[in-house]
Amino acid sequence: MLTNLQLTNFMRHQSLDLTFDAGFSCLRGVNEAGKSSVVTAFSYALFGALALRTSVDETCTWGFPPSSMKVKATVQVGGDTYVFSRSTSGAEVLKNGA
User: Fold this and answer.
1) What is the model's pTM?
2) Dihedrals phi, psi of 35, to nearest 5 degrees
3) CB contact burial 55-73 (16+ within 10 A = b; e otherwise)
4) By the 8 A CB rule, do 10 and 60 touch?
5) Among candidates 16, 35, 12, which has minimal Cα distance to 25?
6) 17/36 Cα distance (integer angstroms)
7) CA distance 48 to 70
8) What Cα–Cα distance (Å) separates residue 9 from each residue in 5, 21, 29?
9) What is each CA distance from 64 to 11, 30, 38, 76, 89, in whole angstroms?
10) Is the dihedral of CA 47, 49, 54, 56 positive or negative?
């Protein structure tokens, strides 16, 4: 289960920290609010630039260097917590903090 998603300079989100509770979660907002960007960010955290619809340069929030774009996703599976962190400088996966 996805429990937390943090975006920095990802598409329209300069700084976004979402926490998800157990059960069903719904993202809702007006057109161009960034709902699809949240889903794309989660895919990027897991799969990298291949999950993006545009280049990394175009995905980064306008006016910021691509090196500032970061996504961090925290997922709980069974009793384990996985943290997927990705930026233009690389990716890291931690299991239970190690």
Assistant:
1) 0.92
2) -65, -50
3) eeeebbbeeeeeeebbbbb
4) yes
5) 35
6) 15
7) 11
8) 13, 24, 19
9) 10, 24, 18, 31, 15
10) positive
Tell the residue number behind the tokens 């157990």, with chain if given. Answer: 22
Helix (H, G, I), strand (E, B) or coil at 25: coil
Both tokens of 34, joined, read: 């960034």
For residue 42, the one-letter residue type is F
Give residue-wise pLDDT tens across range 21-72: 988 889 999 999 999 999 999 999 999 999 999 999 999 999 999 999 999 9
Could you tell me if 28 and 18 are in contact, meaning their C-beta atoms sit under 8 angstroms apart? no
Give the integer Cα–Cα distance in Å for 95 and 78. 12
User: Cα 65 from chain centroid?
Assistant: 17
Write down the residue that tokens 């069974």 correspond to: 78
Rg (CA), the chain: 13
Tokens of 94: 């931690």
